[in-house]
Predict the 3D structure of the following.
Amino acid sequence: MNCTKLMEEMEVYLKSDRCKDLNEANAQDIHHALSKAIMAQIATPWKESQKLHREARHAYYMSAEFLIGRAIYNNLLCLGIYDEVEKLFNERGLKLSDMEEVEDASLGNGGLGRLAACFLDSAATLDLPLDGYGIRYKYGLFKQYIQDGFQKETADDWTRFGDPWSIRVDSDAVLVRFADQTVRAVPYDLPVIGYGTKHIGNLRLWQAEPLSSFDFNEFNDQHYEASVREKNRAEDISRVLYPNDSTDEGKKLRLKQQYFFCCASLQDMIKNYKLVHGNDFSHFADFNAIQLNDTHPVISIPELIRQLTRYEGVSFDDALNIAKKTFAYTNHTILPEALEKWNKHLLIEVVPDIYEIIEKINNRFIDELYQQKRNPDFIQDVQIIKHDMIHMANLAMYGSSYVNGVAAIHTEILKKSTLHSFYEMWPERFQNKTNGITQRRWLAMNNRELSAMITRLLGSDDWVTDLPQLKKLEKYATDKKVLDEFWDIKHKKKHQLGLFMLKHDGTAPIKDSIYDIQIKRLHEYKRQFLNALSILYIYYGLKDGSIQDFHPTTFIFGAKAAPGYVRAKGIIKLINEIARLVENDGQVRDKLRVIFVQNYNVSYAEKLVAAANVSEQISTAGTEASGTGNMKLMLNGAVTLGTLDGANVEIAQEAGMENEYIFGATVDEIEKEENNNYIPYHIYNNDPKIKRVMEALVNGTLDDGGTGMFKELYDSIIHNVDWGQSHPDKYFLMYDFQSYVDTKLKLNRDYKDKYAFAEKCWRNICNAGKFSSDRTIKDYADNIWHIDPIEFD
Ligand SMILES: *Cc1c(COP(=O)(O)O)cnc(C)c1O
């Protein structure tokens, strides 16, 4: 790409769209104009890629969430023009970094949505014909700020300053019918720019609009009121991302969202198919594969059958077979109670035709089960409709050809328990696809210093598209000069993060302290509470002298709690009160600091992972399906302080146990304890140090502002049994407590030996190759989608 010309184009857009010269433009203006200029440049290869996708066997990634983050820097990197544009900016008195005030597109909650974004990036880079379908939420994940230690939420109006990276395609709008309304689905296309290729994938996000735009000429009060109501009711469907990734809120709207984007996407896919293949649907499954990211898009299965039978003259039997061949389902859940279910009466109310089809599928399935002479318990377990509830995972299992878990241990748990009956029937449908992350964003872009060093040592930047190349760096693991340089870069990233935090959050880490980082959605199972308690333990240990020679440590948290998740919000308040307690204590202030950063999102994550020394991955064994934050931190040279859960297991395998800090109960141990009358009170009551920590929650040491939150947290561990549980402390904090603090303190002692510790960090980088989403996506392409890279002329 000709960058001088790009700069000229940028100035033209500034003039035409913003009426400004370069010297008058602010960061938003520049971002708009530069993005527009790039969009114009990539229009042709983008279109050509789409054509090649259509003609080849291709795949679609359907996801209710795409946590994209900021596009501009990543796109400059993938186009190979980052350095040159930076230089040209500097010559014009501009700074690329000014565009950091441009907001993230946060159209997702966390890991599941970020995974979808990493997958599209990898497919684009590997020239694989994969396109994404999702929802263009007007408001993405809420913005968070902290007031008096409490989480506060505001709306994320992310397109407030425009959205130069999408193109509205009115000509591809379609209608979506519900029992009580019909809306227009209007697509917005985002380019997914492959690294070092002219291939550009497509992410199509649907926006809900009223049928006809409001006609001001026909003005009369009654008509006006009705139109406004109709408009709002239509727009409601894509108005907000539900800030919860496990349970359903605003059930009816959420169901409408799911159906809305599935119905629109399938119309689009069928239109694409007919463009190339005409009306013969017997080859539909030969050219299309559809991956369902969790159960949110599973309503696509009956919807494809509906569209094929209703509009394309395909019989029910044929349509069902086409669906089974076309779809594949990714499970992200371990806990059976977290699997998505819909009340059938809600479906009858909202999408009655779909309910009818699901009923027909269910009857078909039950017939087959009887023919196989399955016993009643088995049938009860696997059937799709039971007790008026529609079990979306069961529908996905019956209506698709493959199911995959997202880490080896997770897939084994699916086979052994969560989906065991299905595994008995169809073992050949089960696959594992351990998650991954794109090294473009999570190393090449966010950590340019470390990237440059790696490229120099390897004598090539091949690792940007071939991450296992990093293994060759292991020969430097004991080379003090290399480790010194790595350490200096880490120090520099820590310094940069500190400056940003100071500006953003009004506080910064202790100088030269260990940066111990836990960043992820706030959930009880992820156990930020355990981390908080361990900090209190260290605090008291430092005060009474039982902990000596402690290397100063800054504990950094970034997390959003779903607004209705009271206990999670209590944990945020607790972390902030511990931060205050420590800060106000002159005796420990220079040894310990706790910072809860506000509004953790993708862009903040990019800075945090580059600066981390310690990656906290401390979920109760058997609860985290995979995790991907753990991979980002590993890749940037942090050691994992974690349990043998999700992908941590494979991280420890790849890097070597001796280079991580693994603690706590295993899945088997937890299972044993579940059946073994676990009594957390005994642990609490028999250990004065643990008791002291827990009592700080209720004896006035920490103040929850009169909310009763801390007493509730205390009770949840010691006394109260949650619904459906047989013991308090559902996530085994007390059980893992001692081994956690012991391991944390060992890590702290180890840190003193700089070269020994830096060697562990380095070995983590060298062995992160497996965790590239390039590897994951290639595995999907080869073993589930059966698609090949496209070839340009
Ligand atoms: C990677 C990422 C996540 C997922 O983190 P986990 O630790 O795997 O839960 C969540 N949110 C953001 C912003 C991310 O970048």
